[in-house]
Amino acid sequence: MAKTSRKVIANNKKALHDYSIEERYEAGIVLTGTEIKSIRKGSCSIKESYAKITNKGELVVTGMHIAPYEQGNRFNVDPLRVRTLLMHKKEINKLYGTIKTQQGLTLIPLTVYLDEHGRCKVELGLARGKKNYDKREAEAKRDAERKMDKAIKASRNR
After folding, report:
1. For 68-82, what is the mean pLDDT?
2. Residue closest to 128 by CA, chosen among 154, 153, 98
3. Cys-Cys link to 10, which of 52, 92, 112, 157 (CB 3.0-4.6 A)?
């Protein structure tokens, strides 16, 4: 099986710190011509963004910043506009049911990337917020692993 190549445009590291990710989904995104050109240049931020399902049953992402394309002049659109995400209706309905029945779940964009065909995709995470003590515990665990790796590396170099 061939490995799919993808060019990551934006990562949401803050989401991985603030939330524990339970499931991951892939969705396409509806963009204008100048927006996709700007994304291909790497001018995209998903730091403060989130996804939601509207009353009409559409999946949208809010707060995603795509910088205006320099040569776009009048074709540029609002950098923070609400953008529609593309998923199958069954997947959207399943997500809606999961979010409504389980308290404290939210949809967070984790990465924006270009797939092997040049199409822009968004990886969504079904996430549950972490408490402060969970964040400290995860950070302490990472620090301990770093120290162990450093000690192992130092012992090999002797």
Report:
1. 79
2. 98
3. 112
- Residue 51 sits in which domain range? 7-130
Alpha-carbon distance of 38 to 72, in angstroms, equals 9
CATH of residue 49: 2.40.280.10
Helix (H, G, I), strand (E, B) or coil at 65: strand
Q: Is residue 154 part of a domain?
A: no
* Residue tagged 């995104």 (tokens): 29
In a domain, 35, yes or no: yes
pLDDT tens-digit readout, 15-33: 887 888 888 999 999 988 8
Angle, CA 12 vertex, CA 81 and CA 55 arms, to 5°: 45
For residue 142, the one-letter residue type is R
Give the integer Cα–Cα distance in Å for 64 and 118.
19
Q: What is the DSSP string of 9-59?
A: EEE-HHHHHHEEEEEEEEEEE---HHHHHHHHHT-EE-TT-EEEE-TTS-E
CB 78 within 8 A of CB 66: no
Overall domain count for the chain: 1
Residue 148 token pair = 């162990």
Cα 116 to chain centroid distance, Å, stands at: 18
Contact 41, 97 (CB under 8 A): no
